[in-house]
Amino acid sequence: MDDDRIWGSEEGLWIGDAENYRRTIDDECLMVLPAPPFVLTGRQAIEAVVNTPRWTRVTFTEKQVARPQEGLIVIAYSARAERDGTTPYEAHCTTTYRRLEPQQWQVVQHQQTPPLMATS
pTM for this one? Predict the structure, then answer.
């Protein structure tokens, strides 16, 4: 999967519909998110996204792509997601894609960490 397709897929997970999420997230995926229940399986995340308002815009910065072995892609980035009437959401993220077939990739890991606040 080339870099443009990776970032297009990742954007679709933020702003796409539930069916896109269902196609892209592996049932065995593990996710860590900054809100309860914090740790989810792919099935739990797929069920949760059906009832979650989707973001309308997302911007990625600090984008990194690693290909540690054939059929495995790990990305890291900072995201800023927005939807009308809400405060923008920011997080540092990682996602791991695994190739199932020549053109079929699924997410097997995802995490989001909001920016840490400095304390004095």
Answer: 0.91
